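sorry for the late reply, my laptop died twice this morning and i had to redo everyting from scratch. anyway the thing you sent over, i finally got around to it. pasting the sequence first so we're on the same page, its 266 residues, then the predicted structure underneath. double check i copied it right bc i was rushing
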Amino acid sequence: MGRASNAVVARYVPRRGLLYVTAALTGLRRAELAGLRCADLDLGDRPTVSPRPSTTKAKRRDPLPLDAGLAARLKVHREDIARERGKVPAPTDAVFHVPKNPCEQIAKDARWCGLDVIDAHGRRLDLHALRASAATRMATAGVPMQMARRLIRHTDARRTARHYEKIGVEDLRPGIAMVGAAFWGMPVAPHMAPSAASLAAAAVGCSAPLAEAGTTIAHQSEVASERHATPVEGAACRSVPIADEWWRRRESNPRPEMLRPGPLRA
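ok and here's the structure:
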């Protein structure tokens, strides 16, 4: 009996673990995970997952980029199933076996791993908690809120904003460091400055399209900071864009060029 139970643990526990990791990295809902089929996964160079419209709240198919590490594990998972069955899984085969009572199963797995099912704040560990954790992780990683809303697929941006309000004091420290550096006219400390790598990593793992976007944003930010690093005389706390020195004209609300006083233009 002991050998049989060990075999069951060795076979099914890692697969449930992959289910939990997928929920935590993608934010997919329970019905979306249960309805996921092999045809819904593209595990190529630019991996994506496309939840079935019948299982989504919006009732449409929205492909989502997959983290490269997660895609590699899903590929190994598919190969393991093919070896067990002696054939490649059909496109209509389910990717995961989602328990009928996932809350109960997650509680068992958590206790087996020595984890608390309910934390000090009264929050319960379940599949929806993993979805909420994905949204909060995006906030702490620095993913722009509009991008996070698309990834987590909230129809109301206020839902996403709630997770961005959960970040802790230490998560806010780089922000205040940048504000202080701008005020005192000093460079941001290297360990506090957002780098190209951090912005790319913030684009949800190493998924190619978003990582490229993060790198592009970082590059543009670095170019802009070099171009706009001209200090103002008598005000060391300000950095002024060279292209638009509206502050020199003492205009707090700069007007478009065509509306400024001067001869009429045809």
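Residues 1-10, 195-248 have pLDDT under 50 and may be disordered.
thats about all i looked at so far, will dig more tmrw
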